[in-house]
Amino acid sequence: MSSTILHLPTVDSEDTKNANIQSLFLNYWKAIEEYPSCIDLGMGMPSPSIFGSELEAQNEFVEGRQLWQANYQQQAGDRNLREAFSQLEKQRTGISYTAENVMIVSGALRGFSLVLDCLTRKKTHIVEIVPTYPLLAGQVRNVLERLGGTLTTIIPKDTKTFQITLDEVLPHIKSDSVIYLTNPNNPTGIYVPDNVLSKIIATCEEVGAYIILDEACDIPLNLNYNQKNYLDSPVVIRILSLSKTYLLAGFRLGYIVAHPQLIETFSNTYSFSDGNAPLIANKAIMKYLNTPHLMPFISQIFRNKVKLASYRFSKCSSITEFIEPEACFYIFLKIKSSKNSWLIFKELLAQGINVVPGCLFSVREDPWIRVCCCHEDDILIDHLDKLSKALDAL
């Protein structure tokens, strides 16, 4: 396996033995376990309480009431639910998807690993675009170690928003290439511009390459859906999650949207590794999908939280810059410090604050951290004030 970049930054002495992307995420959780009383601005998910009674279906789901459907179903998932997701994606993209374009999986990460297992061969050339989610990057390396292939990591020259350019990507798209990226990006919350993404997809289609789009954080802060017909390509594989969309983190629920022939391939492979489709509480999810005002409501809540957090960050002298996200509820911050992001993370933990260091997303040069800003307003303000004071004390 080869790569343009395979080295992580220097970390604490106790972590140097396993300082690679496949173990750094585990080290992150081990570090957090040492400080159980920390306030959570890292991997935190929104509390249902900030949405009030709007998430009645979610409450019924969590409490295991009548909306559970404990039954086996075909490995692609219940057809009615797949059809409902296809209609949701038609609304979001303008593409006339059907149930044959959709497969239910045990979370976005399982969908990603399934797709890689099906596409990777000894001659496969995987291209990843940094920043990227650490579990995706780790899974890529695990697959290449098992099945063979090569890896190229592209670090954008843009260090302000980490936006990729066509000149940086197109030379790496060959007939055996599999491109993967997060869109919107995790951790920046920025979408790849439509003109750039459409050209990448067109090039993949011309040469017979595949592109995997992890859309787990695709909750736009402004719900102005545009036609995205460029996604309607047999080489595009979209992976989505219900963790953030419907606040079901931990239930490992998601779905894949792709060409029907690919869905059939993925489903057949899935049956020999996972068996039937996961227990996904079909009725509860259908209740979400049949509540059209829910997503605009969630988007508005997230937009307000991001706006509040951005204002507080603009007042912190230790934050040299931050990226205004277009989606989800994370903000990526650059810290005024000569230390790397892992050391900053460890020192913040010691002061009772958990964030996510930028090195987990393969951002290795400057000290960036990712902050989750989806808490009740008074709690969020308190946590961000403590973060600002802690950063000033570093």
TrEMBL record:
<dbReference type="GO" id="GO:0008483">
    <property type="term" value="F:transaminase activity"/>
</dbReference>
<keyword id="KW-0032">Aminotransferase</keyword>
<comment type="similarity">
    <text>Belongs to the class-I pyridoxal-phosphate-dependent aminotransferase family.</text>
</comment>
<dbReference type="InterPro" id="IPR050596">
    <property type="entry name" value="AspAT/PAT-like"/>
</dbReference>
<dbReference type="InterPro" id="IPR004839">
    <property type="entry name" value="Aminotransferase_I/II_large"/>
</dbReference>
<dbReference type="GO" id="GO:0006520">
    <property type="term" value="P:amino acid metabolic process"/>
</dbReference>
<feature type="domain" description="Aminotransferase class I/classII large">
    <location>
        <begin position="41"/>
        <end position="377"/>
    </location>
</feature>
<protein>
    <recommendedName>
        <fullName>Aminotransferase</fullName>
        <ecNumber>2.6.1.-</ecNumber>
    </recommendedName>
</protein>
<dbReference type="InterPro" id="IPR004838">
    <property type="entry name" value="NHTrfase_class1_PyrdxlP-BS"/>
</dbReference>
<dbReference type="InterPro" id="IPR015424">
    <property type="entry name" value="PyrdxlP-dep_Trfase"/>
</dbReference>
<keyword id="KW-0808">Transferase</keyword>
<keyword id="KW-0663">Pyridoxal phosphate</keyword>
<dbReference type="Pfam" id="PF00155">
    <property type="entry name" value="Aminotran_1_2"/>
</dbReference>
<dbReference type="GO" id="GO:0030170">
    <property type="term" value="F:pyridoxal phosphate binding"/>
</dbReference>
<dbReference type="InterPro" id="IPR015421">
    <property type="entry name" value="PyrdxlP-dep_Trfase_major"/>
</dbReference>
